[in-house]
Design a protein that fits this description.
- Four copies of one chain form a homotetramer.
- Chain A is α/β, with parallel strands linked by helices and 331 residues long.
- Chain A has two domains: 117 residues, NAD(P)-binding Rossmann-like Domain (Rossmann fold), CATH 3.40.50; 186 residues, 2-Layer Sandwich (Dihydrodipicolinate Reductase, domain 2), CATH 3.30.360.
- Chain A is 39% helix and 25% strand.
- Chain A is built from ten helices and 15 strands.
- In chain A, the strands form three sheets. Chain A has a seven-stranded mixed β-sheet. Chain A has a six-stranded parallel β-sheet with strand order 3-2-1-4-5-6, with helices on both faces. Chain A has a two-stranded antiparallel ribbon with strand order 13-14.
- In chain A, β5, α5 and β6 form a beta-alpha-beta unit.
- The relative contact order of chain A is 0.15.
- The mean pLDDT of chain A is 97.
- Chains in contact: A-B, A-C, A-D, B-C, B-D, C-D.
- Chains A and D meet through β7, β8, β9, β10 and β11 of A and β7, β8, β9, β10 and β11 of D.
Chain lengths: 331, 331, 331, 331
């Protein structure tokens, strides 16, 4: 049984709190948030106690592990506190929006042998895990081409965009990780081009809402990612992996299985309205994998280093957006 | 090269004329129709000559085979003429709406060793042939349950209904043949119930437009057929075959492969507007099989006897519609 | 907040216990099972207390509602106890395998104004609820034809079969309820025929494993149900509703969304291995509807009377299996 | 009625000959090929006469139009001869592999008011035409992102590769045309990167077999194309068009509609074995459009200028393959 604290009591913190409660190997002890009222709400619903300071979380030996789901600018600090306290950490991405600071934080944690995982939750999607299994089994031969679509349903608020780090660092980064994980290889080069089609004001932030990214692996295999912030038709992600002996596809998810037949048309249930409906089960699965690593010593995946590598790709992609050329990726 | 005459120059006669012309082993010589103008139109388009009497078709040794596509009440007479003349015959179903007369006609042709085939064209559908192949291969084990849907898009005119023989003899009969062919077994019993939901005036003809039929094979395997004359959403047929080791399904056909994604819905291209768009390729394939039998002595399928057996099921089903009980099928 | 007891601590009782715990408006107080050890296991996992007798469940005013998930032969007795105690009851189907005794039990509960619901959980399936909504909205016009498939993956043990009441009462009954519910009409007549194809020893129990059922509604609309106990390819249920202006289909569920492309074939994730994976979410939804009825006075559906009507259809269907004719349904 | 000559009697010439014969508004008069025996075979099968020289094709006023399906290096010469003779021309792509010479040829034909069309046959695919209709109707708003897959089943012979002009000019060019046509806009910039994964010897030809191309339209809309010469799983092409108000997709085509259900898997009919099975109907449709333009003065599409523009994109893409940067497209 692992004693957990949760830092961050917003929307996603509440999701994590429910998963911590439902996991049979977790004892959900403490919840901390700058906004004590929000922490108290979670504490009351899920039978945890409120921590009134970060110190209270880490300093009393009360917990084995911490789930860091606070605002992005606080992740690195909490990872360091966990490292200091000898507490394992499951941290939402990114460790720090600034790659150099993220790298230092990871080094800090590594020196202290901190058990830590970055929450790229899509690795725990049932279908993506099956894709990975197919690739690893050799069933489709060597990977030659991967297609990923990352498409959000509607523009996030500009306030969110302003602190997000931009489409590469905030949105595409999940798919950079998936491309690395599924192919089992580190991309060496990236080309990215983007536009502000959904929200022209993004240009003020040096950001884009629609982009096309191409990665090149050392083997010569290619990866294409298309990203949009606003589809208008729902949340849409899918992956195709072409190998030398076949292809595997993780198809779009639908929100139901009903078809309506009328003259000349068949109208099916469509896509999920938002990302959360699509990826919801992955959060519990990611937590379970982390807990399993703590309990049974299974390897941690994705590691903090995986988080850094995905960020490194995002940095190079961001450079390419303005340079107009393929950029080397510096890990 | 087989010299052919075509009897019947209506809509479907024109389809057959085009197929006769395109078949490399057919020399399309003659076309006959009571309406000489219609015959002349086909003759001009496809380079055949007009026959001005049935005698001209059969009596001069000008042809090797005849395609009988005239009105139903003339089929039996033309089959007998072909038998007398030693000419092979490809005949649209039914041989005769009256089963006794159909049976006599088949006996007559058999005594004269007439090469004859009844045009249950759905046996030549690519997907149904694949279903048959799967069943015959043993891939899904013994047949246990077959589901067939036979659904027309809109009510035929009442004048058509009046001479059609009713929904069992006119519409369901194709699926009785498919059930026999795919299962490789003769049903022993049939239950049918029907209603006049699309066109209440059908009741005046003792006919139904919506019906549910259950066949029982000697093995105990069961067959369900649903028939409607009017779907409102297009022409719809499909077949499922459940075996002891798996299931095979010939899915509905769509008229295209385009999907449109909008909020919460995906709208695909729908079904074909009518039966002809769905089954069109089967006519050329049926003709090719018949010509192959003539040229190379391959077995004829479906034979005239197959036609009689499907009719026998239709007769029993028609009895069941009013008796309210499962009726034995008398071959 | 509704205080609940659970009677029955087997596999499905454990499912209900988890749902009772997760429902925010339920206080899961007591669990009873003849096998006290099983009750204790559930009690420990979900924070309830063990009741050591049925009296302890009902007699102390400790609960507002009872979930009856014990063996079939005890349902009626527990419903009566609930009625005596003024406790609401959510009861697994059937109320009693003997329709006369079930009818008496329902009358008994009704006289005492017991709030009671029979757990035909498929009414709470997201897709079937959407079908119902489509039909009720008039979108596809008047119902004319309904197709339901009810197909289990593998033969249940003969000991189960022996006490199940047979395929009509045990398996088809769920689909009799769905047909009534979706069409909004009571069938008036039923024809059923069946065979023992998967397990010949079923004949010793007067039972069948493969059956085809046809219902007729007063409007003339028809319903076809195919049932098998053993598909070999997984758990398979689906529904099509044809109306006068279109068709709606609740398609088969797949256990994933991955496709593998190889030469000439596309291999998708298949069906669920068993019924539980397919219908699991319906149990929580059914419970939530019941709790909502208790809390807010919303109408109870399916009512005990709905349970009786589905049973009445099953009785007539069972008669038809041997009579070979369409049987009137006596409600 | 348009009198046609066909130049080129190879595999695709035979396809065109059959379509010329079947088109009711075409009188197929002459066929020419350097290999007179091949020409004679077509002439015999389709009732045309053999032309023994190019002069015989063009000089006697015997034809209204010519279908140029000879080897690539002769296209431009035949277009000029047609222009000289006042004969309309339907020409396989490309006009000339060298863009400068192609441009001169088009100018030459234009000065002589030659009615000419380049046979980008995919514009006549039923599904792609429907995509174009959807975009033009405004149904999905402004185009923002287009995804195209162009995937051949197996490596063509190296002799073919050697004279093909490379993957951009030979394969991707069809999709450059589709991107222009569907979006209604000329791309301004292209990035391409490629590898030799299927056939390392391609490197000797400066060619690639696997590539990822990104186009940028003046509006900022983006286009991604993935190309492979060898999938191993059949011929695969598909298009998605994301607009500001929805998405439209022309899905992969399957070679049949049969599904096989076994434990945990559903195996469907797969993709076509080769490009010809997939695009076969487009050739007759392209011819019909050309004939319609001749007969009724409807606009010609794709024009020779369309052919040049697609080539211009291919040139820039070929440059980008080695420059590693986005290249401007010079029309």
């Amino acid at each position: 049984m692992q004693r957990f604290a949760l830092i961050g009591a917003g929307f996603i913190g509440t999701v994590h709190a429910a998963n911590l409660t439902a996991n049979p190997n977790v004892d959900f002890k403490l919840v901390y948030d700058l906004d004590t009222k929000r922490a108290a709400t979670i504490a009351a619903s899920f039978g945890a106690a409120v921590a009134h300071s970060v110190g209270e979380v880490f300093d009393d030996g009360a917990i084995d592990a911490v789930f860091i789901a606070s605002s992005t600018d606080t992740h690195a600090e909490h990872v360091r506190r966990a490292a200091d306290a000898g507490v394992a950490a499951l941290c939402e991405k990114p460790i720090h929006l600034d790659l150099a600071q993220a790298t230092e934080t990871v080094a800090y944690a590594k020196e202290r042998n901190t058990l830590a995982m970055v929450d790229f939750n899509r690795r725990f999607d049932r279908d993506y895990a099956e894709l990975k299994r197919i690739v690893d089994s050799g069933e489709i031969g060597d990977v030659e081409l991967i297609q990923l679509s990352s498409r959000g349903p509607s523009m996030p608020p500009l306030e969110y965009i302003a602190v997000s780090g931009g489409q590469m660092r905030d949105q595409a980064v999940h798919f950079f990780d998936l491309a690395r994980w599924i192919s089992g290889a580190d991309p060496v080069e990236v080309f990215a081009t983007g536009s502000t089609l959904a929200e022209p004001r993004l240009a003020d932030y040096g950001d884009v809402d629609t982009s096309a990214v191409t990665l090149r692996l050392a083997s010569g295999a290619l990866v294409q990612i298309d990203c949009t912030r606003r589809t208008g038709y729902g949340y849409d992600e899918r992956i195709e992996v072409l190998g030398s002996r076949g292809m595997a596809e993780a198809r779009r998810h639908r929100n139901g299985n009903v078809s309506r037949y009328t003259a000349g048309k068949v109208t099916d249930d469509g896509l999920h309205p938002g990302w959360f409906e699509r990826v919801k089960p992955t959060y519990a699965a990611a937590l379970a994998a982390f807990v399993n690593a703590l309990e049974n010593g299974t390897p941690i995946s994705p590691s903090l280093e995986d988080g850094l590598k995905a960020q490194a790709i995002a940095e190079a992609a961001t450079r390419s957006l303005t340079s107009g050329r393929a950029e080397p990726i510096l890990y």
